[in-house]
Amino acid sequence: MASLLLWLLLFVLCWPLALLALLLWPIVWLLSLPFRLVGIAVDGAFQLLRAIVTLPARLLGAR
Predict the structure, then answer these.
(1) What is the per-residue pLDDT for 37?
(2) CA 12 to CA 46: how far, in whole Å?
(3) What are the tens digits of pLDDT across the range 8-22?
(4) How much is the pLDDT for 18?
(5) According to the model, what pLDDT value does residue 61 have?
(6) How far apart are CA 63 and CA 59, in angstroms?
(7) What string of H, E and C letters represents the secondary structure of the chain?
(8) Do 10 and 18 meet the contact criterion of CB atoms below 8 Å apart?
(9) Which tens digit of pLDDT belongs to each residue from 19-63?
(10) Cα 54 to Cα 22: distance, rounded to the nearest angstrom
(11) CA 30, 35, 37, 40: dihedral to nearest 10 degrees?
(12) How many angstroms separate the most distant Cα atoms in the chain?
């Protein structure tokens, strides 16, 4: 909701810039997808490493 209000404010103040932002947003979203996928993969690797490191403590009953 806040992003819509900010875009409407930009549209009122400077409509060419607002239309350019509206047209470029899908391109920026597509370019950011690989970085999101890398972030998900790195997060999964860190979660796996954390599970491996804390496994002995969990097996011994530590909370």
Answers:
(1) 96
(2) 45
(3) 998 899 989 888 988
(4) 87
(5) 85
(6) 10
(7) CHHHHHHHHHHHHCHHHHHHHHHHHHHHHHHHHHHHHHHHHHHHHHHHHHHHHHHHHHHCCCC
(8) yes
(9) 898 899 999 999 999 999 999 999 999 999 999 999 988 888 866
(10) 47
(11) -140
(12) 64
Residue that has been written with the tokens 């409509």 in this structure: 15
Tokens linked to 63: 């909370």
∠19-25-28 over CA atoms, to 5°?
140
Question: Could you tell me the two tokens for 44?
Answer: 């999964």
Q: For residue 4, give the nearest of 18, 14, 17 by alpha carbon.
A: 18
What's the confidence (pLDDT) of residue 57? 86
User: Which two three-digit tokens encode residue 35?
Assistant: 């970085």
